[in-house]
Amino acid sequence: MNFSEVFKQSNQLCKVSPDGKYLATCVQYRLVVRDVSTLQIMHLYTCLDQISHMEWSSDSLFILCAMYKRGLVQVWSLEQPDWHCKIDEGSIGLVSSRWSPDGRHILNTTEFHLRITVWSLCTKAVSYIKYPKACQKGIDFSRDGSYMALAERRDCKDFVSIFVCDDWHLLRHFETETQDLAGLEWSPNGCVLAVWDSCLEYKVLLYSLDGRLLSTYSAYEWSLGVKSVSWSPSSQFLAIGSYDEKVRIINHITWKKIAQFEHPATVESTKTVYKEVERRPAVAHSSTPRVNVLTNFVSLINSLLLPHLDEICSLPVQIPVVKPDPDRANPKIGVSVLAFSSDNHYLATKNDNMASAVWVWNMQKMSLEAVLEQTSAVRCFQWDPRHPRLALCTGNTKLYLWSPGGCVAVQVPTEGGFQVHSLNWHCSDNSLILLGKEQLCLCYMETDEEDK
Amino acid sequence: MPESSLVKDGRSSSVEYGASPLRQFSQSSLLLHRNSYMLGTFCTEHNVQQCLSHINQEISSLGLPPVWTESGNSSELNIVAVLNCMYDLIQLHRRGLRTLESMEVEQLKSSSNIDHLQLTITRLKEQLELSKRENTGLLERERQLQLKAKSLQSCLKNEKEEVQKLQNIIASRASQYNHEMKRKEREFNKLKERLNQLLVDKKEKKQAIDVLNNIGRADGKRSLWKTEKTEAKHEGEMYKTLLSDYDARQRELVLENAELRKVLQQMKKDMVSILSSRKPAVKSDKPEHSGVQARSEEEEEEVFDSSKESVELYCVHAREKLTNSIRLQWRRLKSHVERLDSQASLVQMVESKDTDAVPQETQEEEMDRLKLEIQQCKDFIQTQQQLLQQQLSSPCDEETASLLSNCYMLQEKERLGEEWKTLEEQRKIFERERKNFTEAAIRLSHERKAFEEDRATWLKHQFLNLSPFADSKKTPLLKSKSAFLISAETEAPEKLIKCHSDTASPTPRCVPLASASTADLYRTLCLIPENSSVQPKTNGEHVEESSMFCGDVFVQHQQWEHSEDHTPSQEKNSSI
């Protein structure tokens, strides 16, 4: 495991191009594009203001930089560095900007969600979509980029519009049976659209591409409902995390619940619980025989000298629970993050009132595989796009990795204490991008080890 | 423990008491005597006699031999007796002392016992008091708790009502809130529209795109005009994706189905093989049920075969058949396994008992067979009884049959009573006749005696007339004759008694004795007329009847026959 040197970044804006060749970072109002393999600066673009959002086009040829305060969007080309494009939304304001899947259109959402402006870079044409709904996730493109689902609100009713991304042709427009639609998400195969209601009501609706209602699922009534929804990469399962601290897995044939994962404070039945323990480097791992170390990992990262290792605990294990404040809105309770591993075998979840724990579920056995209990709240976790490997960070100087073989913690060996706030896997290369507050660094996994 | 000891003591003391009254008495009397000696005025020279008699009386009352016997006028003391008596008295005294001691000890013991018991009683009383107090305390607490529970229940009720109220409030608020939301949203939308309009109208800072030069489409194609055709194309593509998805899913399902079918077939095959290997065993096990079972099995086989052919068909009917056959076979397999289990347990049991399994089985079979036989026999008996009943009573139902049989019995009784009466009369007549006969016989014997005497005298005369030795010859002959007569007369009653004891008739002996003797007499005298030979027979019959009258009708019938059977033997007896 190796780490690159540290680079500057701001606003955590740092993205690898979809083809995996370039790394774009924003530093104040500058956009820096580097080669991922050499980390050499290839291009340097200067924007008109501090960049608040940056995005690669799907073909990795263009980069979109949005400056929401100014209502401006600037687009840069990698092939033609002198090519430029500037979109001014004017006084109507800008709250969100994104590429269309084809990489030739830009969708800008104006302030107050008055409308969505679709700008074409090919024809300079502009088109508007009125009545977009301001919600958790009101717009979603299908995985293959051919369809866009948009949540709308008209006359106090929720609608979903399905557009063909090719020419923005409105394919379907239908009213949904929701009180207050909160989000929608395409299944990875692009055939089913999951629509869920706001947290006041537990309701998940499944629509076919052609607008037919396939099924409605509701686990309970009255109390706060859906908090997060995630499709498995195979489109086989829909995981619904809710405020009752449970994850419900719905299958794609009958659209009925096939499993329910609870997040109890006392873990009694799982294979392993990894508990992070603070220890002096000197007494790292010779004293306690219970310490579980992936020996190959240790040999691998021997030079880094791991001062903190995760310990396997004997069951049952008590996981610290923070009682949410009942008087405040959006209570910190329930499953807020769900992530399937790329091979569909595992599901990682985080329960907000047990912020220091990540739960890994085995989707084949429909059982708890492991619990990773950290010393501080988990900030971010992400699955390796190619392996069943989970990377997570807790805002300290360590990077944690879990794989079915075990768990390991790695100190980021940089001077001045690099605190990992967020992380991103490189889509194909065996590396991770770690984002600190103002810095970033790359972490390279040992490829030889992986090949073995 | 103290109770048991107490009981023991009581028993022992009671035993003592049971044995002692006499001793006590003697003791007291002795003491009394001693006291009187102490006073020294018991015996003086003047009252020796009185003293003696008094002591004698006392001693005799104590159950000792008298000291002084009045042999005539001499009133001398029998010194030996006195000494003996004294010795006895001393012994008695000692014994008395001993018993006294033991009694005292006993007394002490029992008094200590009593103390102990009293102590325990007081303690128990205290305990009782305590527990009573506790009880009252507990009762009080229970009452309080009940009160509490009641109050809590009322509280709960109130709370429930409160909850209901709150729910209603929530509902009303929610509806109000929803309404407000909608109003606000409408307003918001209006504002949005207005804003939009204003922005459009303003045109002061227009939205703009500033592109150096247009870029080509990602796919390199030129953008198309929106036409009906494109719309149709989009629709078509959408359906295509949907179809392909469904297609993929269907393929998956087909694959899965094929896999499952394979498994199913494998299972079926296994099942069939297992079951077919089992079948003969089943037949041998249960010969009675095998017929039915075999038929059903054949049916199942049929079903299975037909389904086997149509396994590949997607016909609902075939599937149904398949599932049915599977279900059936599964059931059979299950029962088979269960039986195997039970057999295994049986074998285990048998092994634990160290006996062979086969003999037990055969034994059981034998037992079953025997039981069956018993049942059959019982059935047979029952049917027989029924038939009998039917035969006896007219073909009516049982109740009437029993009624009729009762009537029948009554009739029979009456008839028998009448017969009895007539027979009684006949008996009387016979007795009278017998009396006449005996009288006649006596007369006859007298006459014969006279006749004998006459003949003797006549013979004497003749002898005296014929020879001088006639006297000496004549007496032995006469003697022997008389002896013969006497023996004959004594022999007959003996025989008669014997025969009567054989028949064990309750009739008095004298009557049959007389009748037998008369009959004998007649026979010996060849005086019995031919028809009168019936007389003893009827007599015996009559006796039998009287003895057996109180029996059952059937028994009586039998007895009738029996007595008839017996009569000849009786005749024989009497004839001997």
TrEMBL record, chain A:
Biological processes per GO annotation: lens development in camera-type eye; retina layer formation
SMART domains in the cross-refs: WD40
Gene3D superfamilies in UniProt: YVTN repeat-like/Quinoprotein amine dehydrogenase (2.130.10.10)
Domain of life: Eukaryota
InterPro entries (alphabetical): Centrosome-WD_assoc, Quino_amine_DH_bsu, WD40/YVTN_repeat-like_dom_sf, WD40_rpt
GO cellular component: microtubule organizing center; MWP complex
Stored PANTHER family: WD REPEAT PROTEIN 8-RELATED (PTHR16220), WD REPEAT-CONTAINING PROTEIN WRAP73 (PTHR16220:SF0)
Protein name: WD repeat containing, antisense to TP73
Organism: Oreochromis niloticus (Nile tilapia)
Gene: WRAP73
UniProtKB/TrEMBL annotation, chain B:
Residue segments, region Disordered: 276-303
Coiled coil regions in record: 114-208
Cross-referenced InterPro entries: Adhesion_Centrosome_assoc (IPR052300), Afadin/alpha-actinin-bd (IPR021622)
GO biological process, one term: intraciliary transport involved in cilium assembly
Keywords assigned: Cell adhesion, Cell junction, Coiled coil, Cytoplasm, Cytoskeleton
GO cellular component, one term: adherens junction
Pfam families in UniProt: ADIP (PF11559)
Recorded superkingdom: Eukaryota
Location of this chain's protein in the cell: Cell junction, Adherens junction; Cytoplasm, Cytoskeleton, Microtubule organizing center, Centrosome, Centriolar satellite
Stored PANTHER family: AFADIN- AND ALPHA-ACTININ-BINDING PROTEIN
Family designation: Belongs to the ADIP family.
Protein name: SSX family member 2 interacting protein
Taxonomic source organism: Oreochromis niloticus
